Amino acid sequence: MKTIFHVDVNNAFLSWSAVNHLTEGGDVDYRAIPAVVAREGENGGGIVLAKSMAAKKAGVVTGEVLWQARRKCPDLYIVPPDYRAYVRASRAMRALLDEYSPLVEPFSIDECFLDMTGTESLFGPAEDAAAAIKDRIYRELGFTVNVGVGAVKVAAKMASDWEKPNRVHTLWPSEIREKLWPMPLSFLFMAGKSVVASFERVGVRTVGDLARLSPRLVAEEYGKGALRLWRYANGEDDSPVCPVSPPPKSVSKGITFSHPLPSLAACEDVLLSVAEELGYELSEKKMNGTVVTVSWKTPSYRRFSRRRCFTEGIFYYADIFAKAAALFRESYRGGAVKYLCVTVSDLSFERRGEGNLFAADDEKEERLANTIYDLKRRYGKSALTTARSLGSGGVRLFERGAEREEGEKRFLGL
């Protein structure tokens, strides 16, 4: 039986901001007061990225708008995000974990899986080793983590979600029925709101309710995604811990505006800037995709989305923009847009669409794209951009703070 750890930083962005602040001579520990990490915009705009325990007790929820959080907690302290500090903290934790196993898989910036199988002679029983890692991270790096321990990745992941902070929890195969099955279905890893609602309508409310169903029935009635949840409910997961992350299946870029976009022209300006970012990222990965999705939200958070598959590989910013803009124009009916996102998916390293009548034009376009991206890599992404993006302020949309705010205002002519 394997031994898998899942290490999860408690309130990562807030904890890392607090540690960085104290290290630089600050005298306030953000973790000890009602505080959130958010970039404050006009009229109380901004999204809560992380919260302290005191803010959580006041009802503040990650992902809500800042003005809503302030209604619940009037004395809320706002901590601006510091992504460079977060990357440093994440790398420091990863370096520490590498000392315990050659098989460490980053799951996100604040989570890692470790395959600790066969390390008992070095670090003792699994629970003792997990506690030692937890304590060492706090002692040397200054922040707390939860460590989940199990025989498979999904069990370790769910175990780390139990009582926080600074805890070790186990979910061995022998503990599935006792610990996992009584939990509400929403606790199950990857159980989204819609699938939970579908199961609850037929009386399946706990993890155990799902685990006891026939897998054939689950697959026939709810599809392969639900069958995967059934396997997780029974503690089944055959995915290995992979130190090298698999190639991405999609890339996406989106932006939420403090000043909603009022027109089609303004939205197309954003789409062009987003397409430039995506084209650069695909060039860095040396990949192309065949599916483009455009999604957006109104100020009332009503969501719209359009998706289309293409036969030829998409990688150049002009091609991404043309396809995304066409999808958007097909269904946009006017009104303000609060959030806009473009996704290119079905990614591959292989060239697709070769041999068509326009191959010579495609090669010319690819040479131009590669020249542009080489210049961006050498002199910075903002060194070369379209005149339309430069004139509208789009070049600053993906920068932080005041630069982004200025970009938004230029879009709207403010």
Q: How widely separated are the two ends?
A: 63 Å
- What's the number of extended β-strand segments? 12
Subunit organisation of the chains: single chain
Biggest beta sheet attributes: 5 strands, mixed
Question: Kindly state the mean pLDDT as a whole number?
Answer: 87
CATH class of the largest domain: Alpha Beta
CATH homologous superfamily of the largest domain? Reverse transcriptase/Diguanylate cyclase domain
Structural class: alpha+beta
Q: What is the global morphology?
A: globular
Total number of helical segments? 17
How is the largest sheet built, in terms of strand order? 5-6-1-7-8
Beta-strand content estimate: 15-25%
CATH topology of the largest domain: Alpha-Beta Plaits
Description of the molecule:
The structure is a single chain. The protein is an alpha+beta fold and 414 residues long. It has 3 domains: 1-172, Alpha-Beta Plaits; 181-233, DNA polymerase, domain 1 (Orthogonal Bundle), CATH 1.10.150; 250-412, 2-Layer Sandwich (Dna Ligase, domain 1), CATH 3.30.1490.100. Helices cover 43% and strands 18% of the residues. It contains 17 helices and 12 strands. The chain has helices at 12-23, 53-57, 66-72, 83-97, 120-123, 126-141, 153-159, 176-180, 193-200, 207-211, 215-222, 224-233, 264-285, 317-331, 359-379, 387-392, 402-412, and strands spanning 4-9, 35-37, 50-51, 77-79, 104-108, 111-115, 145-150, 168-171, 250-261, 289-297, 303-314, 337-345. Strands 5-6-1-7-8 form a 5-stranded mixed β-sheet. A 4-stranded antiparallel β-sheet has the order 9-12-10-11, with helices on one face. A 3-stranded mixed β-sheet has the order 3-2-4. A hairpin with a 5-residue loop joins β10 (289-297) and β11 (303-314). α11 packs antiparallel against α12 (224-233) and α13 runs antiparallel to α14 (317-331). The longest helix has 22 residues, at 264-285. The chain is globular and about 60 Å long. The relative contact order is 0.09.
